Amino acid sequence: LAMFENLKNLINKKHHGKKASHDMTPSKSESSASVSDGSYTPNGPPKDSETYASDNRTASTMCIPSPASSRNSLMHLCDSPVSTESSHRLFAENELNQKYPDLDSRYQLMEKIGDGAFSKVYKALDTATNTVIAVKIIDKSSTSTTQLNNVLKEISIMRTLDHPNIIKLLAFKNTTLNCFLFLELVDGGEIFNQIIKLTYFSEDLARHVIVQVARAVKYLHEEIGVVHRDIKPENLLFTEIPFVANPAGRVVRASDDDSKLDEGKFCPGIGGGSIGIVKLADFGLSKVLWDRKTQTPCGTAGYTAPEIMNDLNYDKAVDVWSLGCVLYTLLCGFPPFYDTDQQKLANKIVAGDYCFLSPWWDEISKEAKDLVTHLLTLDPVERYTVDELLCHPWVLQNNKATEPALDAPQYS
Questions:
Q1: 110-126: per-residue pLDDT in tens?
Q2: Fewest CB within a 10 Å sphere: which of 56, 293, 349, 356?
Q3: Which residues of the sequence carry a binding annotation for ATP (predicted)?
């Protein structure tokens, strides 16, 4: 119990294997706990000075506030009298652009919203469409061959993706100095930060999140032939919806303390806890995989499948394991596998050594626990598929009986 109390304290201090990030865009693949396949060569990697723009995914599809209402465009600022504050802001924005002479003038950088080991993420105005987007800038001089290979792989995969629950790549430019990824701006930020804020999610909100992520994974597996390999709360972004107070008052569990924030009212089909649409991000560790297995080490330790830890061949089932880890974390606020010692953590994962710890799991339904156990089944052949996840009684809320998972821990 002491270990889990310490873990909860770490989470409350915004630690979860790494410091909580306030990035609103898919960055941080560079800070992943593992190494990608350095031998991978994307199909037709972009050449220097090449620019790619999507022909069927325009900036107008972005789920963001209109810049006309939330922040006047720079063009409007220039054409009309501005306040001292606006003048300072405009000067700062121009100063940001001066740092990147190879950035197209149509993009006006507004503020930095993320910082990685070799990349920076900015909120920016696309003056051609008068919309606010995110620009991820990778400094080539600071990247290794493997890191740059990851970036090019991420781009080659994201070019092919078009799904409402996956972050959109709007355009790309590759110069001798930098790689520029022009991305959909998702205004809510990371699900990870929302877990920290709310401590855990209600079953309704957890279901709302995991179903959207599962649909994105199903699309990747079945239509694109891609395994993500790094699904975790930090790589899940959400569009923010207005908070609606729960008319019945703050819903709490017996394990809660007075600091537990109100999640608010959940609206089916819309969301709750300020979380609307959920989008999967960060494809730096993804791998194209059509009916074959791979053996490349990847992923973030606490969410990595046992077959990867054991250096065995693996397939798309590793993403289902990660979905199980995410669902567990959403429901109670901490991950199923945790240890400050990396070797001990790996040992717990390969042994399937997790439990539904009291008192945090005492009030969570048997159906939710049943789904978690099927997703965290050690044998990838016996592990649920994404389709089985989406058809589970807890997801459909039909109370239909299921066969217990082979190696499920005891629960009531």
A1: 999 888 778 899 999 99
A2: 56
A3: 136
55 with 103, same domain: the answer is yes
341/222 same-domain check? yes
- Orientation angle between helical segments 191-198 and 2-12, nearest 10 degrees: 110
Kindly state whether residue 403 falls inside one of the protein's structural domains.
Answer: no
Write phi, then psi, for 180 (nearest 5 degrees). Answer: -115, 120
SS3 206: helix
Separation between Cα atoms, residue 316 and residue 189, nearest integer Å: 26
Buried-state track 85-116, b at ≥16 Cβ within 10 A, e below 16: eeeebbeebeebbeebeebeeebbbbeebbeb
Q: How many CB atoms lie within 10 A of CB 128?
A: 10
- The single residue of 23, 230, 282, 319 carrying the catalytic annotation is 230
Residue 147, pLDDT score:
83
Nearest alpha-carbon partner for 123 in 109, 105, 142: 109
Q: Please choose, from the candidates 232, 235, 222, the residue with its C-alpha nearest in 3D space to the C-alpha of residue 289.
A: 222
Do 217 and 96 sit in the same domain of this protein?
Answer: no
C-alpha–C-alpha distance, residues 175 and 140, integer Å: 9
3-state class percentages of the chain: helix first, strand second, coil last, to nearest 5: 35, 15, 50
Residue 136 assigned to a binding site? yes
Q: Do 335 and 231 meet the contact criterion of CB atoms below 8 Å apart?
A: no
- Print the domain residue range for 176: 29-183
The residues, ordered by sequence, that sit 6+ positions from 318 with a Cβ below 8 Å of its Cβ are 227, 229, 299, 304, 305, 307, 308, 380
Q: Is residue 215 part of a domain?
A: yes
Q: Do the domain assignments include residue 318? A: yes
How many structural domains comprise the chain?
2
Q: Which two tokens stand for residue 285?
A: 């560790």
Alpha-carbon gap, residue 277 to 275, rounded angstroms: 7
Query: Does 379 participate in catalysis according to the annotation?
Result: no
Cβ within 8 Å of residue 291, ≥6 positions away: none
